[in-house]
Amino acid sequence: GIPAEPLFRSRDLSDLTNSIPLASGIVQRGQKIIDRGDIIDAKTYNILLSYQKELDRREKNSQQISVTIMGQILYITILITCLTIFLSMFREDYFDKIRSIAMLYTLTIAFTVLSSMLVSHSILHVYIIPFAMVPIFIRVFMDSRTAFMTHAIIILMCACVLHHPLEFIAVQMVAGIVAIFSLRELSSRSQLFWTAVLVTVTAALTNISLDWIRNDNITRIEYGELNYLVINGLLLFCSYPLLYLIEKTFNFTSNITLIELSDMNKELLRRMSEVDPGNFQNFTQV
C-alpha cells in the first residue's frame, strides 16, 4: 500500500526542535543564585546548568553572526569585482564617462541595501521590489549586455540574505531577461507599459511552475507570493517617471526625450519653421 505521509517534514521538525528552550527557570537580573559555602541542591544545580547552557548558546550565536557577516562581505566583494572586471574588459569606454559608472554602482548598491533592509526587518516580502527596473534603465541608457550582467550581479547579491534563494534567483532572472528583450529599442511610452505587463506575467508563471515542481499535490500550493508579484508589477509602471529622474540625475538622453524634442507641435519649432525654414529643414534632418 501507499506509505503514510509523515506528520512533519524534516525541516519543520528541525525548527520545532530548535525552538525548545534549553534553559529552565527564571532568574531576575542582579539576583544571587548561590553564595560561597552554600550547599548546591537539585534546584540550584538546574539553575546553574541552565545558566551555563544559555551562555554557551549566546556565545555560539555571536560567533555564527560574525562568520555570516564575514562570508557575506567576501561574497559581495567577489561579485562586485566580477562586475568591475566585466566592465574593464568589454565596456572600457564606460570608465571615461563618470555618469555611466555612477549609475551602475548606484543602482547596484541601492537595490541590494533595500532588499537587505526588508529581509532583516521582516517588512512585507522581497518580491515587491521591482528588480526589473535595473535592466530597464541600463538597457535604455547603455546596452543590453551590461543590463543583463548588472541585473545578474544584483540578484546574486540579494540572494545571500534569503532563506530560500534559488526560487528568488530563478524568478528574478527570468523577469530581467524578459525586460531586456521587450526593450530592444525604446521609441514610445507604451513600450514601458507592455514591458511591465510582460515581466509581471512571466514572473508569476515562473513562480507557479516552481511551486508545481516542488509539490506533488496542487491543492496544497499557496499562491500568496503572487500578490507580491502583482505589487511588483504595479511598481514597474513607475519606470517612466523614474526614467526621467535617472536621466536628469546622471545627465543622460533617452530616445523618448529625442522624440519629444523633435515634436513639430512645440512652439519653438513652429516659429523656427516660419521664420527660418532652411535651418529648420537641416534641424529635422539631423
Give me the secondary-structure topology:
Elements: H1 10-18, H2 42-90, H3 98-120, H4 133-141, H5 144-159, H6 165-182, H7 190-214, H8 225-236, H9 239-249, H10 255-261, H11 267-275, H12 277-285
Helix pairs in contact: 2-5, 3-5, 4-5, 4-6, 4-9, 5-6, 6-7, 7-8, 11-12
Descriptive notes:
The protein has 286 residues and is mostly helical. The longest helix is centred in the first third of the chain and has 49 residues, at 42-90. The chain has helices at residues 10-18, 42-90, 98-120, 133-141, 144-159, 165-182, 190-214, 225-236, 239-249, 255-261, 267-275, 277-285.
Secondary-structure element series: HHHHHHHHHHHH
The helix count comes to 12
> Using DSSP, what is the number of strands?
0
Average pLDDT over all residues: 80
Decide which structural class fits the backbone: mainly alpha
How would a crystallographer describe the biggest sheet?
none
Q: Please give the share of residues in helix.
A: 55-70%
What would you call the quaternary organization?
single chain
